[in-house]
Specification:
By secondary structure, this protein is mostly beta strands. It has one domain. It has no helices and 5 strands. Strands 4-1-5 form a 3-stranded antiparallel sheet, with no helix packed on it. A two-stranded antiparallel sheet has the order 2-3. Strand 2 and strand 3 form a beta hairpin. The radius of gyration is 16 Å and the shape is globular.
Length: 102
């Protein structure tokens, strides 16, 4: 189940995934701690529900302790004016270039 820190989108970007050759690494950007059970709240949603997070919202998926598999589809969207970093962990080849939207 996803959990998030209420109001956390108002804080700093804490970490980001980077593409390092064929490896994915984590870059620490700020020492603000990630939410834990005392600050994070569960985000329950029925199957098929779309849940959108602000790019700065600290969130994560808690362990699935049920015997039923949990599936998710993730969509990352950017504004057309954004500069997409070649070090971003999500990369596509030239046949399907990354594009923003207006």
């Amino acid at each position: 189940m996803p959990v998030a820190e209420p109001g956390g989108h108002g804080g700093p970007l804490r970490e980001r995934f980077l593409c390092d050759g064929n490896r994915i690494t984590m870059e620490k950007l700020d020492s603000t701690p990630w939410p834990d059970d005392s600050t994070a709240v569960p985000l329950e949603a029925k199957a098929g529900t779309l849940v959108c997070f602000h790019g700065l919202l600290p969130h994560y998926s808690a362990p699935n302790r049920s015997p039923v598999s949990r599936h998710a589809f993730t969509l990352h969207a950017t504004n057309a004016g954004s500069r997409y970093s070649p070090r971003n962990w999500i990369q596509r080849d030239a046949s399907l270039p990354v594009r923003g939207f207006d």
